[in-house]
Amino acid sequence: xxxxxxxxxxxxxxxxxxxxxxxxxxxxxxxxxxxxxxxxxxxxxxxxxxxxxxxxxxxxxxxxxxxxxxxxxxxxxxxxxxxxxxxxxxxxxxxxxxxxxxxxxxxxxxxxxxxxxxxxxxxxxxxxxxxxxxxxxxxxxxxxxxxxxxxxxxxxxxxxxxxxxxxxxxxxxxxxxxxxxxxxxxxxxxxxxxxxxxxxxxxxxxxxxxxxxxxxxxxxxxxxxxxxxxxxxxxxxxxxxxxxxxxxxxxxxxxxxxxxxxxxxxxxxxxxxxxxxxxxxxxxxxxxxxxxxxxxxxxxxxxxxxxxxxxxxxxxxxxxxxxxxxxxxxxxx
Length: 333
What we know:
Layout lengths: L2 E5 L4 H12 L6 E6 L7 E4 L2 E4 L1 E2 L10 E4 L3 H13 L3 E4 L28 E3 L3 H7 L3 H6 L2 E10 L6 H15 L18 E2 L11 H14 L5 E8 L6 E9 L5 H9 L4 E3 L11 H4 L5 E8 L8 E8 L3 H16 L1
Helix pairs in contact: 1-9, 3-9
């Protein structure tokens, strides 16, 4: 008997939760749909049953076993501890608890054993972290990674449904010669690329870049990996891309990397040099797997210890909703 609540059900990730719960036949006996007061009272149909969306309150989690949160950091900070105190296990998609020492930060393909350490809350990593490091973990286990240089090309889906709609509207406005409307981002996202829309730290890196650094260290359980990162927004609806330069401890060839990654769970190799066909967001969108390609030797690193690769993964799916649901599935097991 597993009773599930979804906090933030009307958002982009919340809607993806529903799609994946149905698709994966999640073994829940009942669902509770939660959102802000603005959406409370609205009706929605899920798995042939009509639900009334309820306002998220301190009483929302009485009798609930698992809560999937995707309602923003401030909401998580307020309500996740309340849910945990009520006996519910929260899988939180915000940044609120990721770096908390008492909260497991989990990618099921990498560190599922950490789930057992939860004290009522389990954190879902940032989307760019999940997508970037899932293919790296099997490589790191065989040949420890010394350094990563990561450049991300992040879809507007990372900023939510409003940002996705803004890209569509801006594209029409721009092509029609109209003034472009900006609400979700301070910069025009249509036909443009700009630094990720998170705050800049004193060190010159933005918050998104430092998330990838700190979260990778925590998930891998290895602070010795040197990581530098540059995150940008690109005019893509959904599915992030990342260019990753890897320096290994020992020599490794592209053929060895391909063989290892091709067997990794949640990863698919797309590396057709003859036809110049490699990972693209159009292909990654709607897919569970992270697409990996452009696997080649970095000849600037001595001793054949360097590898370049390029990947693409659906930010809303594996980068958010799917990872959370995989955690929930392991909780039940």
